[in-house]
Write a structure and sequence with these properties.
The protein is mainly alpha-helical. The chain has a single domain, classed as Outer membrane efflux proteins (OEP), CATH 1.20.1600.10.
Length: 356
C-alpha cells in the first residue's frame, strides 16, 4: 500500500551484523572449587599409581624368594641323587660279591629313579618361578634370565604396632583413600556453588542496512554509520528454584563423602590385618626355624648312624631309607621356615619404611 492509497509490489532487504560477549564477574566460586576438586583428584590418582607400584614390589619380593626357595630345594634333591648313586654303586659291588640278594639292588635302583624324578621336579619348579619373576619384571629375554643369591643378615622382626603407626603416614593406599575423602569434600563445595548468585558483564556492538525497491534510501555506508549501536551492562542470576536439582546434587556429594570415609576405614583395617598377620607369621617362622635346625641336626646325625649300621649289615634297606627321608624332610622344613621368615620380615620392613 503506497502513500497514494494504491497497491504496489515492493521488494525489501535487510542486512544486520553484531558481536557480543559475556564476561563472568562472579560465578558462585564454581571455577575456584572446580580447580580445587581437580587438584584433589590428581593427588589421589598419583597416590593410587604409587600404591600399585607398592603391590608390584611386594609381588616381586615374594617371587624372588620363591626362586631362592625352589633353588635350595633343588640343591637338596641333587644331594639325594648323589647319595642314591653312591648307594647303587655299593649295592652292585655287594651283589657281585654275593653278599646281598638281587632285590636289594632293585630297591636301590628304584630309589635312585625316585630321587632323579624329585630333582627334575625341583628343577622345573625353579625354572617356573624364574619365569614368573621375569614376567613380573616384564623382561623380554626370559631364557637368559637369572638372579643372585640374597646377601646380608636377617632382618629383625619389627613390632606390629610400630610398623602400623609408621605405615599410616607413608602407605600410598591410605594416602589415596585420604585423597578420595578430600576430593569428596571438594565435590560437596562444587555442588553447593549452584546455590550462590552469579554476576556477569555483557557488551556488544552492531548495525543494519535496509532497502525497499522503488524508494530512495541512504547508501550502505551511511546506514551502517547511522544505525551503529553499542551496549553494555551487568546481569545478575539469582537461583530461586531449579526443580531440587542442586539439593539432590549436594545430597549425592555428601553420600559419596560418607562412602569415601568408610572406604578409608576399611583400608586402615585391611592394612592393620596385613601387618598383624605378617608379624605373627614371622614370629611363627622364627620359632619353626629354630626348631627345624635342631630337628635337622638330630635327623642328620640319626641318618649317619643308620648309614653306618646299614653299611655293616645291621640295618635293613627300609630302615635306611626311612632315616634318609626323615633327614630330607627336616631339611626341607628348615628351608621353608627360613624363607618364610625372610619374606615376612621384608614385608614388615617395607610397610615400616617404604623400602624393602
Amino acid at each position: 500500500l503506497t502513500a497514494e492509497n494504491t497497491y504496489a509490489n515492493r521488494n525489501t532487504s535487510n542486512t544486520q551484523w553484531g558481536a557480543s560477549f559475556t564476561l563472568p564477574v562472579f560465578n558462585g566460586l564454581s571455577t575456584v572449587r572446580q580447580i580445587q576438586l581437580a587438584k584433589a583428584n590428581l593427588s589421589t590418582v598419583i597416590e593410587q599409581y604409587a600404591a600399585a607400584k607398592d603391590d608390584i614390589t611386594l609381588n616381586v619380593i615374594t617371587a624372588y624368594l620363591q626362586v631362592l626357595y625352589n633353588r635350595e630345594l633343588h640343591e637338596v634333591a641333587l644331594n639325594q641323587v648323589e647319595l642314591s648313586t653312591y648307594e647303587l654303586t655299593r649295592q652292585r659291588a655287594l651283589l657281585e660279591a654275593g653278599k646281598i640278594p638281587e632285590v636289594d639292588l632293585l630297591e636301590a635302583e628304584s630309589q635312585l629313579a625316585q630321587d632323579k624324578l624329585q630333582a627334575t621336579t625341583t628343577a622345573n619348579d625353579t625354572r617356573l618361578a624364574l619365569v614368573d619373576l621375569a614376567q613380573l619384571l616384564e623382561l623380554d629375554d626370559i631364557d637368559n634370565f637369572d638372579i643372585t643369591t640374597l646377601d646380608g643378615e636377617e632382618q629383625p622382626i619389627l613390632p606390629a604396632e610400630s610398623v602400623y603407626n609408621n605405615a599410616l603416614n607413608i602407605n600410598h593406599t591410605l594416602k589415596a583413600a585420604r585423597g578420595e575423602i578430600a576430593a569428596a569434600e571438594r565435590n560437596i563445595s562444587v555442588a553447593q556453588s549452584d546455590y550462590i548468585p552469579r554476576l556477569s558483564f555483557n557488551a556488544g556492538i552492531g548495525s543494519s542496512y535496509y532497502t525497499v525497491t522503488g524508494m530512495e534510501h541512504p547508501s550502505f555506508s551511511r546506514q551502517m554509520k547511522d544505525n551503529f549501536n553499542t551496549y553494555f551492562g551487568f546481569s545478575l542470576s539469582i537461583p530461586i528454584f531449579d526443580g531440587l536439582s542442586t539439593r539432590n546434587s549436594v545430597k549425592r556429594a555428601r553420600v559419596q563423602h560418607v562412602a569415601s570415609k568408610l572406604q578409608y576405614q576399611d583400608a586402615e583395617n585391611r592394612l592393620y590385618k596385613t601387618i598383624q598377620q605378617a608379624y605373627y607369621q614371622a614370629v611363627s617362622a622364627q620359632e619353626r626355624s629354630k626348631s627345624c635346625l635342631i630337628a635337622e641336626d638330630a635327623a642328620n646325625k640319626a641318618f649317619e648312624a643308620m648309614r653306618e649300621k646299614y653299611n655293616l649289615g645291621r640295618a635293613t634297606p627300609s630302615e635306611y631309607e626311612q632315616a634318609k627321608n626323615k633327614a630330607l624332610r627336616t631339611t626341607a622344613e628348615r628351608i621353608q621356615a627360613h624363607y618364610e621368615l625372610i619374606l615376612r620380615t621384608r614385608i614388615l620392613n617395607f610397610y615400616d619404611t617404604g623400602r624393602y
